[in-house]
């Protein structure tokens, strides 16, 4: 049943994306057929101006989103960034019961210039409690965990402003080893000043079996100095009993060139009949680039309500240090 659902959702997403791309291509061809007449030169000029303005606005909108994700070293940049980068992170946390936790994180993306940066080696810690739940920091825990590591080759088949298709094949270094492979398709849609980012991921691993994840991000600049993002993700896996849905709302506020705050709230739901709430949270993440372009620290106060803790009020504060080698 789950495998059928995964296949149907994936096929539907791909077909919709190609259909939209085809419509764009057809409309472009129709426009070219009219260019044989001499009385539409002014119209062509106006169309060129409009297209140029649209392209400029679109690039600026996308640039804002990419700049934010690069500043926060967001998980999306692992798949869509093209330059070599190494990130070392360390964080400590404390909850209301004075329970301390700490962990370290590591992520390295090595690009091969001779392949036009299409082939990359990615090595990272796979138990990344800073990237679960909320796209930036939710889902964290104060318990110490043993980090596992994975290594994979990432290949980008095609990439432009609106499309990216890539794969990743590697292994998690656990006992027994957990080999995996995934296919990721990203499609970007622009409507006025709105950005819609659809991401479809098919994956196979020894631990989870065949699975599928569908994500949708909606972004828009609000109140001139704020940037809004809604992130939704549905994940289904053959060997995992729960079908998980995550919804996060984030509001980014740049303070200066080197300081930014993101306010986030979100929830995690287990899709059953009826759906079962698993967790919800609210937090604020203050990030400061305090030295050069490669040293960052963060202060993150969070309030979390987990089903495992009977949804009891759980305030936590996190302190995090990032050291980045490579382009930021």
Q: Would you summarize the structure shown here?
A:
The chain has a domain at 2-76 and 93-103 and 185-326: Porin (Beta Barrel), CATH 2.40.160. It is built from 3 helices and 14 strands. The chain has helices spanning 2-33, 41-71, 76-80, and strands spanning 85-95, 100-111, 119-125, 149-159, 163-172, 178-191, 194-205, 209-222, 226-237, 244-256, 259-270, 276-291, 295-306, 314-326.
Question: Can you put this structure into words, describing what you see?
Answer:
By secondary structure, the chain is an alpha+beta fold. The protein has a domain at 2-76 and 93-103 and 185-326: Porin, CATH 2.40.160. It is built from three helices and 14 strands. It has helices at residues 2-33, 41-71, 76-80, and strands at 85-95, 100-111, 119-125, 149-159, 163-172, 178-191, 194-205, 209-222, 226-237, 244-256, 259-270, 276-291, 295-306, 314-326. A 14-stranded antiparallel β-barrel has the order 1-2-3-4-5-6-7-8-9-10-11-12-13-14. The longest helix is centred in the N-terminal third of the chain and has 32 residues, at 2-33. It is globular.
Write the layout of secondary structure elements.
Elements: H1 2-33, H2 41-71, H3 76-80, E1 85-95, E2 100-111, E3 119-125, E4 149-159, E5 163-172, E6 178-191, E7 194-205, E8 209-222, E9 226-237, E10 244-256, E11 259-270, E12 276-291, E13 295-306, E14 314-326
Antiparallel strand pairs: 1-2, 1-14, 2-3, 3-4, 4-5, 5-6, 6-7, 7-8, 8-9, 9-10, 10-11, 11-12, 12-13, 13-14
